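Sample A.
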Amino acid sequence: MQKFLENNKKTLLAALGVGAAAAAAILALQHFSANKKAVAGDATPVKQGGELTKLEKANIIAAIQIEWINDNLSVESIKQISDAVVKFAFPEFVELTRRDREERRANTEDIQKYIDLWESYTQRLEELVEKSQKTVLENLQISEAAFEKSNSYHISENNQELFMLQATLLNRLKANLRGTKTLTLEEFRDIIRTQVELMNKEAENYKEISAKTKHPEEAAPIINNKVSDLIYHKYTVEEEDLNVAMTSYIEDPVSQGLFRELQQANMKLLPLGDFF
């Protein structure tokens, strides 16, 4: 995974930064149907609270069916391992994200501090994924080298599904956060309208933020995080609350029009050709 993270930094940064706002910009309706399908397809649901017990970890490992094709793991085996990594990492991810949100929201006016917090969070998150993957592979008695080799082989064979599975692993962690607030259709529309306004306003800071980051492409997810934080300050609504509402109101014509407006605002930050 480490080599994958290094070789595909731009795609991973895009994936990590995609919240409720950017989701509408990139995939609109498909994003949420895909998320529901991915979560529903897991054999073992992701635990929402507290650490995994030894038995829970053992059950997750036992559910993985390992298949080798010549010297490489099958694509299906890699998918199951990736799902297990998400489940192992999720409890710590929840606490890490909670602390990050608190720190971010206390520093929305300090651009440099906000950027520093982003870089710290992404580093700790990458370390968490690495640690979880190492644990899963050790339990399966599969070397990290063999896993990396199998991933590289299938991606070199142009397996886009597997590439995006790995690239969006961090975002799949976010997709498992459950909303706690129910929004009416009017509340949801109002929030999306505000997102459009904020995205257009914050896009004006793109060059300034990009110049202050280690990697210019980090500006997009940083701005998306800031929009999410400003939405929280105004409505006390988290990204996962919006995700739930979007799945409920995805067929609403007015909401679909707002998604298109949000898409246009996000396109100022996410030139898709640079990421995919």
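Sample B, a different protein:
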Amino acid sequence: MDSNRVLIQKEFEKHKGEFVISHGKVYRLIGIVDGVDDYYWLFHDRRRIFQATCVGYFTPLYGLIDDRHYNDMINSARWNDVDLMLEKVKEEDRDKLEHKTKEGIRAELIKESFDEKDELISDIYWEIKEL
């Protein structure tokens, strides 16, 4: 196996589910993909998944910022991230939503985010790493 792939997988395992800063924004690190020409981090930005080259960087926030601020990010994600907010929606209101389950929303996010040539080399980690 490619040594870069091994290093990338180790980095992912260490930081999966964490909030990270990349390209000047905060995201959740949720996976890695082997694309045609490169390896890519999978980031979730509340409404979509996108890929960013593993040549690029990310700064993990877990353990770096005050716990109360990290917990605020977790609480905000539970109310605002499209794949998590269903936990807060009343059962009778779910019928009004286009996708009625977290699994349905997540499947749609994945469908919109990948090229058929991409190979997912990690499980998608949907959970948030908590303190």
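Observation for Sample B: The first helix runs from residue 3 to 15.
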